[in-house]
Amino acid sequence: MSELETISMHVITSAEEICAVVLAAKSSGQSVGFVPTMGALHEGHLSLVDASLAECDLTVVSIFVNPTQFSPEEDLEKYPRPLQRDLQLLTERGCEIVFVPTAAEMYPEGVESTVEVGSVASPFEGASRPHHFQGVATVVSKLFQVVPADRAYFGRKDYQQALVVVQLIEDFNLPITMRVCPIVREPDGLAMSSRNTYLRPEQRQQASALWQSLRIAEQAHAAGETDVAAIKKKMMQHLNSAGIENVDYIAFVTDGTVQEVETVAGPTVVAIAARLGKSRLIDNHTIG
Amino acid sequence: MSELETISMHVITSAEEICAVVLAAKSSGQSVGFVPTMGALHEGHLSLVDASLAECDLTVVSIFVNPTQFSPEEDLEKYPRPLQRDLQLLTERGCEIVFVPTAAEMYPEGVESTVEVGSVASPFEGASRPHHFQGVATVVSKLFQVVPADRAYFGRKDYQQALVVVQLIEDFNLPITMRVCPIVREPDGLAMSSRNTYLRPEQRQQASALWQSLRIAEQAHAAGETDVAAIKKKMMQHLNSAGIENVDYIAFVTDGTVQEVETVAGPTVVAIAARLGKSRLIDNHTIG
């Protein structure tokens, strides 16, 4: 902990301790906001922190690279963990309490239980990443007990993840209110993501084609096109022309669901996942 | 609700309302005990109520025949639901707050999430009743959110169920303390169970052989026998001689686990399940 001592912030590693801090705040009438993260913070995360700070008396950020939401072949080992920088960013933003548990604190020996949230977790990210949402739902279930906040803040970039957490909250009667905050983008439109750091310079340039393809969908719809197949074709042409061949999915779903539509007839989320080299990027945009 | 109005007791059917009542009690410094039941109350349940009343300022009993813990071929439809009698018994015992949700209150349309607790749920009851413990763990997870009590009271007759709930509490960091209370027996030793009412008179007589077989195990061990196979043989002989042929399992496990042993070398739970006609009875006893 010596490297952290220069930062004026409460860094708590014990589940019992963070729980006591949150309960004490609530007992004294304070509202508590919670921003669960895997660290490697960017302006997307920090916008969630800002939203919580604006709405709640106390804001708790957790930094935990949750192993159970990674598949064996995924990037758990190389996932960035710039802890000191993260704490510095949170301090500058005015967040005073950060929960940084070890894997052993979150998953003591003998832990085996898991949560399945059902059909909302099946398609798209759930299909591409088996067990991913089981890992997300399980760790979020645990974090919501350990940090019994009034409100939780998630980013809309992970659209399906937000739906999974909403389903979890509703199905298990969890006493927390979900806030889903807008996507924060780089100047060229690329959605901010901790995984963007994996991109080599030429891939980083290509990556903006994801956002461009979502804008193409928006513009096509604004020009009167409602046929999803036709819009997808335009998007795919653009992605291919930018050198992105490995598209996991382009999906048009009714906003707030994972229900695919064939015609844009109301608020519709266009979601996309593509691979650039070893990196996998996702993005989405609401049209209609 | 008119039939309930003669009973001086708070019968609450809304999850939101019971949660508010419990939180208000806790805010005012009261400790809260929770006894989740499926109704058809007997002295076993009432001993849990007594334990909670003795230890907690406020006791909440829930009565909910949870559909998700029954298999399609099981006795959900015919499970006894003597609600008025249950409320009368609770009133006499001094319990003032009963939560009686409908299935729609606990499982609104769209609910899909489930909890799996892992290996503790696999053998014995888990093997005989697929999905049973998934249903138990899921409804207990929900009930613990809706009734955020300090302590939960379960009976030791459902030994493996108690282990499942302990695992659930530990794995999901649930802020509740588990109390497992002793088995309550009829004068002839039959463990009290709401399902005993299914037994026809001759089956009811036979049923005491379960307890007798557990006593035989205890006595054999007291006389120096430690070999589990030898003790099981004596138990089975007794059960067969009483006309009980359909034994699901006799298991010797280290107390507090579902780990089977071949030799009694310390505190050991002897668990038994058998079918008498259409009824399935379980019991257990600790020896060693």
Structural write-up:
The structure is a homodimer of 288-residue chains. By secondary structure, the first copy, chain A, is of the alpha/beta class. Chain A folds into 2 domains: 2-181, Rossmann fold (3-Layer(aba) Sandwich), CATH 3.40.50.620; 194-287, Pantoate--beta-alanine Ligase, Chain: A,domain 2 (2-Layer Sandwich). Helix content of chain A is 38%, strand content 20%. Chain A has 9 helices and 10 strands. Chain A has helices at residues 15-27, 43-55, 83-93, 103-106, 125-128, 132-146, 159-171, 201-222, 228-241; strands at 10-12, 32-37, 58-63, 97-99, 114-116, 151-155, 177-181, 246-254, 268-276, 279-287. In chain A, strand 9 (268-276) and strand 10 (279-287) form a beta hairpin. The radius of gyration of chain A is 19 Å and the shape is globular. The termini of chain A are far apart. Mean pLDDT of chain A is 96; it is low at 1-7. Chain A binds chain B through residues 15, 19, 27, 108, 110-120, 137, 141-142, 145-146, 148, 167-168, 170-175, and chain B through 15, 19, 27, 108, 110-120, 137, 141-142, 145-146, 148, 167-168, 170-175.
